Amino acid sequence: MTHAVALLLYVGSLILWFRSLLSGGRGRGPMLAFGLAAAGVAAHAIALARFTAEHGQLPLNGLAPSLSTVALIIGIGLVATLGLGEGRRVGIVLVPVVILLEAVAVSLGIEPAPEMLDFQGAWFAFHVTLAFAGLGGLAVAFASGLLYLVQLHELNTKRMGRLFQFTPPLATLDRLGRTGLVAGFITFTLALVLGWLWTVSFRQSFDQTNPKVLWAIMCWFIFVAALGVRVGDGVKERRSALASVVGFSLIVVSYLGLRLVSSQGGFFL
Amino acid sequence: MSPVSVVGVSHLTAPVEIRERFAFAPAEAEAALGALRTHSAVQEAVLLSTCNRTELYVCPGGNEGVQDAAERVLAEKAGEVVGGTKQYLYRHDGEATVRHLYRVAGGLDSLVLGEAEIQGQVKDAYELAGRNPATPALAGPILHRLFQSALAAGGRIRSTTPIGEGAASVASVAVDLARKIFGGLEGRQVMILGAGTTAELVVEALGRDGIRGLVVSNRTYERACELASILSGRAVHFDEMPFELAKTDILIASTAAPHPLVTRDGFRHARKGSQGGPLLILDLAIPRDVEPEVGNEPNVFLYNVDHLHEILDDNLLKRRKSVPEAEAIVDEYARDFLHWYGARGVVPVIRSLRARWDDVRQGELERLWQRLSHLPVDDRNVVEAFSKQLLNKLLHDPTERLKQGAGNGRGVEFIDAVRYLHDLETVEADRSEESGPDDDDEVGGIEVGGIEVDVPPADDE
Fold first, then answer.
1. Distance between CA A226 and CA B452 in Å, rounded?
2. B5-165 maps to which CATH number?
3. ipTM over 0.90
4. Which residue is catalytic, options B12, B16, B51, B328?
């Protein structure tokens, strides 16, 4: 029920974001859209807290709870832009991502994983939460990068229409994207190190062919690439925006692909 | 009776050299409002003075004496004008004044359609008349209501229509572009190439708060120094321009040079080794000062005069398209105000109407008692009650119709008719001599347009 409320609030927020876009971001529309999204995040957090209380486990095992947690972390990433003025408008990209993840999670049924995994406990919780936070950071960088490319297109085509008026300044988007990437890179790297340490400490073996491991390493390289393109001459802001958009898209596509072909799909993520 | 009149001069009736003679500084406006107080018929007044208009709103409307007094205030300020000041002044009365103020506040009457600055200027004018402790408040209940609703109408026009959308001058396009590229101007370096007036206006519009530095470069160094001192910037010799270009975030070029001063090769050379951050170039010169190829360089946003005018034309077209929508809002607010004013005027009229016929009733009863002096007290009471009941029945429908008239915007029209048909001016004059000024407030009962009116029911027993 609380998940449904959160979804409704997110959808309401999305409608307001699009209405704001049509009005060129004038008036209180963006603030209301942001407020509704924040209310959705609050309801979402309550829903997952109730899940934890009812089932005695964090919503980190199983596909549906994991997707819902990733959605919540991305939502929190949006709320964190509160002090960024027009930067908050990345909500127009982030809210649909959150809605998509949460809707899939709800449709699958947010229930505890049927099979208890052997890697439970604080170690595992830290590992997964940090990994999800890393993905949340990359999602924020993706949203900023996408809007950066849109605004750049508007500036280069010398148009100053509603899209131009709605879209945040290039400098704000670049700063937000950089912050998302750096924060995401740090947390994701920590998550990988924790995962590796746990595996070698408790399992004494590290299966490098496990699709989950391969996917995680690919994600890490995408972070490295997106940050790496900021080094050097030329328009590093544009390169970084493009890398964030392509990188995040690659992660989503590769994840879906792995879900389809992996025999361990049920445990993946 | 008309609520309000306006006498004024604007960009639509007078050129700038005439308008500036009518312009009031705040202190002068206070003095002028003070002088208006000496005119006994002026109950309320607000003086709006901007670079594009000077207008004096006065209450009551429909009074030639009041309008003449307002016109004298403006004429005195303008002084001697060839051909007289009358030719430049306009007068509106009643609904036309109400609509005019709403159009002004909404930017529909502005030189630049939809400009937002006028909203603040209307507010300042109202506050000067109503709140400045040095000035006896001249904005009374009618102008208070009128200006408050004008500000609300202006706000709604701007927030719900695209009338203020998009920049409407080269300077504001520049500000919008800078804002969308850099976010803010804090720590930005601005360079002006040449000493054109438009460049100066752009710098003024950008504002100097937070700008790291402003550099002026011109072929004539003295002219560069002159402009730099006006804009609190720094002048550099023309041959130092490439060196400064490396550190520049916003370049405004407006020289009269016959060939480009910033070539692609020169630009590349100048920017070599710079941080490579974004550079906004506004080339306002004809012929152009900056080679178009420079616009293809990474992180360079080059806008020439044609680009800027295309943007402006597009924005102004959008603004013009939104005028009917804005006019509909003006109509709605004007109706509301006139409704309120009509309802406000109904209260004393109903009171006077009842007093008028109650006096008649009592007079007739007095005469009747003289002829029927033998009538016992109980019978007299019955006759008196009957007379009251009859009066209530007779006045019930006119009272209800007046209330309805106030509710549908025809209050003013009905009030005038009732006053005339029942000769209420005479009654009101007699009553005002008999009673104190506060008696009008002692009413209670039915609400008409937010105002309480004492109206007994028709079948009062």
1. 70
2. 3.30.460.30
3. no
4. B51
